[in-house]
Amino acid sequence: MKLFFGEFEADYAKYHFPYQVWLVREEGDPVEKIYANGFLPMRNKKGVYYLSRNIRVNLNLFELSSENRRILKKTENFESDIIPLSEFKYTPQIQKMCLDYSKKKFGEKVFSSQSVKNIFQGDVYNYVFVFKEISSGEMVGFAVCFVSNEMVQYAHSFYNPSLIDENLGARMMLESVVWSKKSDKKFIYLGTCYERNALYKTEFKGVEFFNGFRWNDDLNELKDLIKKGQEGQEEPEGPEYLLKDKDFLNNYYQGDLNTVLSNYGVRVIF
To answer: Residue 89 carries which DSSP code?
Structure first.
């Protein structure tokens, strides 16, 4: 594995020298170890991963909650099948549905036609959940994933935008978690979580998040980090380094930075 550090704008007055951490997978590198160290793959560049605050479910601890059962009951008119992407027929109609959904959900600039096509026909992901409406047999949703012997990444989901208020999105993610559990996977990775509207990814028993130096199941810490980040966007001077934040250390690590540095972190071996 090789690490690259891409610079962001520095702030000399606050002694901030930010970097985005990238990882390049080399021959023989176990992909599960890459995910386990907090990295997710770039959707348009095979073998390149970025470090982020992301969510996963420890499937050994997962079981259906009352809320999960409510979603399954409310969306019982949908069913799914998972097939290799190499066997999936990508059509102009599917592309239009995906673009219509992404524009309604995220705005005009998140996905281009080519970027959606690359998700389905590139070589980063390898499986897709196809969701159908049972009563009509119509395909209404797609969840593109990466599946290995031990883990699943639920990477990109698209569905008929007319069903946004029908809980289909929640059903799609939940069904992928249930399938992963039944398939004896250890973890399913659900993507990044930097805003309040991404907390739906935490509605599973066994959920944990990567905070830069460890996987953590304390969702109070996650919610505080989201609040801190969103408040920081409104402050012209920007937030302090997390590991120099006294409130953060007092609330979650007994105020002791040395404890964090001694017991956690991503070990690099040369």
So the answer is: -
Q: Which residue range(s) make up the domain with 16?
A: 2-249
Q: What is the number of structural domains in the chain? A: 1
Residue 49 forms part of a structural domain:
yes
Query: The domain spanning residue 188 has which CATH number?
Result: 3.40.630.30
Task: Identify the pLDDT of residue 11.
Answer: 81
Q: How far apart are CA 78 and CA 167, in angstroms?
A: 10
Is 134 among the domain residues? Answer: yes
The answer to whether 202 and 53 have CB atoms below 8 angstroms apart is: no
CB 217 within 8 A of CB 207: yes
Match 């095979």 to its residue by tokens: 46
What pLDDT score does 238 carry? Answer: 46
Q: What is the pTM of this model?
A: 0.92
Let me know if residue 47 belongs to a domain.
yes
Is residue 254 one of the residues assigned to a domain?
no
Sign of CA dihedral 63, 163, 144, 227: negative
* Block residue for tokens 């059903």: 171
Average pLDDT, 10 consecutive residues per value, the chain (270 residues): 88 81 92 95 92 97 96 95 96 94 79 89 95 94 97 96 90 97 98 94 97 94 87 52 85 88 78
Residue with tokens 């590139």: 122
* Per-residue tokens: 118: 């690359």
Give the pLDDT score at 201: 96
CA–CA separation, 216 vs 252, rounded Å? 11
